[in-house]
Amino acid sequence: MRDVPWWGVVSSVAAPVLLVGGFTVAASLQPSFNPVANTVSALAARGATDRWVMTLTFLLVGVCYLVTALALRPARRAGRLILFTGAAAGMLVAANPETAANAYPVQHILWSSIGLAGLTTWPAGAWRRGPAVPWALRPAVAAVVVAVLLALVAWFGAELVAGAGQTGLAERIAGGAEALWPLAVVLSCRQRGRYRAEEAHPAVPASAA
């Protein structure tokens, strides 16, 4: 089983850092913004103060996901393609921002939905079987992760429809979880790679030397 290259580690670490840092900075630049109630898309909407910050964040995080999908060689191709598709759709969200006249334009909703679906379900297509498979790519783990991510996205959707006042909080928690899981998968693959290297080249006991 092939290992994840170093640049895949960099991209998987950068994604959650850029996401959290981006929407934190963008929110701080708004004259009046409630991060619990308002979505991150509002930070990139036409008319928002320094909307370029959140727009750039969407694009950079999307690039990180694309790179991570390319680097996740131990995962099945189907899962990597789903992650790649979700990342590309997320970048298209930035190209179709909300407007003052229409907070939920069709294209924005379309690409947001595809992006969320891809980032939520990709572990279902990435799992493998076998004793040498990293723990994060095992079927049972993938099933649990997808269930948790779906529950978080469902919470966000319910908040969005009901307008219960925690839409932004639900979105940030769901988005953060989606950003952290590729990192967990990458780290598990790298860990398994080190174990294989140690098994192939065991340390020589001092007494034998």
Which helices and strands appear, and what pairs or packs with what?
Blueprint: H1 6-29, H2 52-71, H3 77-95, H4 106-126, H5 139-162, H6 167-200
Summary?
The chain has 209 residues and is mainly alpha-helical.
Description:
With 209 residues, this protein is mostly helical. It has one domain (6-191). Helices cover 68% and strands 0% of the residues. It contains six helices and no strands. The longest helix is centred in the C-terminal third of the chain and has 34 residues, at 167-200. The radius of gyration is 19 Å and the shape is globular.
Helix content: 55-70%
Separation of the first and last Cα atoms? 32 Å
On the 0 to 100 scale, the average pLDDT is: 91
Largest sheet: none
- Global geometry: globular
Helical segment tally?
6
The overall strand count is 0
What is the percentage of strand-forming residues?
Answer: under 5%
Q: Which runs of at least 5 residues are low in confidence (pLDDT < 50)?
A: none
Number of domains: 1
